[in-house]
Design goal:
It contains nine helices and seven strands, in the order E-H-E-H-E-H-E-H-E-H-E-H-H-E-H-H. It has one domain (11-266): Rossmann fold (3-Layer(aba) Sandwich). The longest helix has 29 residues, at 106-134. The chain has a seven-stranded parallel β-sheet with strand order 3-2-1-4-5-6-7, sandwiched between helices. Helix 1 runs parallel beside helix 2 (43-57). The protein has 269 residues and is an alpha/beta fold. It binds NADP nicotinamide-adenine-dinucleotide phosphate. NADP nicotinamide-adenine-dinucleotide phosphate binds next to helix 1. The site of NADP nicotinamide-adenine-dinucleotide phosphate has 25 residues, from helix 1.
Amino acid sequence: MSLPSPDPQSRAVVTGASSGIGRALAVELAARGYNLIVAARRGDLLDTLAGEVTDRYGVQVEVRVVDLSDREARGELSDEIAGRNISILCNNAGIATFGAVADLDPAYERAQVELNAVAVHDLTLAVLPGMLERATGGILVTGSAAGNMAIPNNATYAATKAFANTFTESLHGELRGSGVNVTLLAPGPVRTEVPPVQEQSIVDRLVPDALWISNEITARGSLDALAKNRMRYVPGLIGKGLSLAGQFSPRSISAPIAGAFYGKLGAGS
Ligand SMILES: NC(=O)c1ccc[n+]([C@@H]2O[C@H](COP(=O)([O-])OP(=O)(O)OC[C@H]3O[C@@H](n4cnc5c(N)ncnc54)[C@H](OP(=O)(O)O)[C@@H]3O)[C@@H](O)[C@H]2O)c1
């Protein structure tokens, strides 16, 4: 059940590769020898990434500057990857909002649904026929521990990540034995650098530095889990705790607790 070996014709696609977990996934894939297509809106950061990994690992990197919350722009990338040999797809780009939905910008909330949920669906459906025909491939989706819970003051994010989590784990079951591996990455708090004090959210202040999991460890563990075709990968102790709490505690109890916490987050971020 391993992943397709890198070859000159195939590409591994990473969305949201300009920063954070997506950048670390792109670097780790390059280190493993995969040629890449990296997508996000900030082309300057993607170009820097491409230069770095090409120099260091000798892989080819194609940059796609695209707003994946825009259906038309996303359609161009979907059409492209549907027609190419995509060995691995990392559906990772995502955004989050905090606060009561009624107080948030409706257009941005809609964009969040498009990016975190619909784009995951579109891009997965684009690569799936080719992977099934070749009887090999890997699809990693970055959901979240938040996708296991009802979270007042984080409603759109929690709901879109519930879609990502459930879609991915359902697909994992459908594709068993097909040669196509599907794994959900469902992290708790992940970061590599401690933000400057004035930019810290309440989560940055509340979670001790030692308990944060780095982007690099998350990327390595995710790709190892995908190679083993694990249904779900949750890095770190906090992530595992949140994952268990979200899945096994009644929502009537967990939602008010999570809502109170995220209410502070909305006010503090
Ligand atoms: N870090 C955590 O604690 C954590 C926990 C659970 C889940 N996650 C999930 O992990 C994923 C990566 O998050 P991160 O923490 O690494 O955050 P990040 O550093 O902010 O990365 C988000 C990535 O998504 C891209 N993106 C955002 N809007 C986009 C758009 N409209 N079109 C295309 N790309 C877009 C960003 O690139 P541009 O701005 O250049 O477009 C960036 O590369 C997300 O799905 C997030 O929900 C993160």
